[in-house]
Amino acid sequence: MGYVVAGLLGGLVGAAELASRYKDRPAALVQISSAWIYVILNVVASLAALLLVRSFGWAFGATGSAVGATQVLVASFAAIALFRSSLFILRVGDQDVGVGPSVVLSSLLGAADRDVDRQRAEDRSVDVGTIMQNVSFTKAQYALPTYCLALLQDLPLPDQASLRGAVDALAGTDQMTDRQKALALGLLLMNIAGPEVVRAAVKALGDELTG
Asked: Whole-model pTM?
């Protein structure tokens, strides 16, 4: 039973990590095979960590009936940290290279993560092109972000300030066309609000945003 719980918790940790990284549309991750590979790797890491914990009898200060639960929780939530650690560091040229479980696991996790990122990038390119199809950056640079922020009720102030800074930077550059700026604005807003909110905002503002 302990291994089942550890595997489930490890999978949830991996899924939560991906969802926090690709916030625009987390639900779309279920359609990407590499996302499942990433989650499965986290499950395997949790199971392996629990096996090691029980093999060496690590109790982490717990006693009695709490030992089993403590081992499962530590293995589930600390597995990735454990297997991303290095037994020792080798100096290769001008770089420090970690030797240990981290070499294998970090490479596998990194490959899965990059594949998820590439597939989400393709979807996002299609989404932003459709949503911002007729939008003029000059007309949308203040109205659209303000409207999207008003639609969101609990966006942290640092995220709002970061968005404002990025939009101001776009407005201040003369190295991009209005169309390119509009697409970049759409991506910035999708990162915070998701494509559906941005699509709804563009539809609500209508002709006021078109060039």
From this structure: 0.64
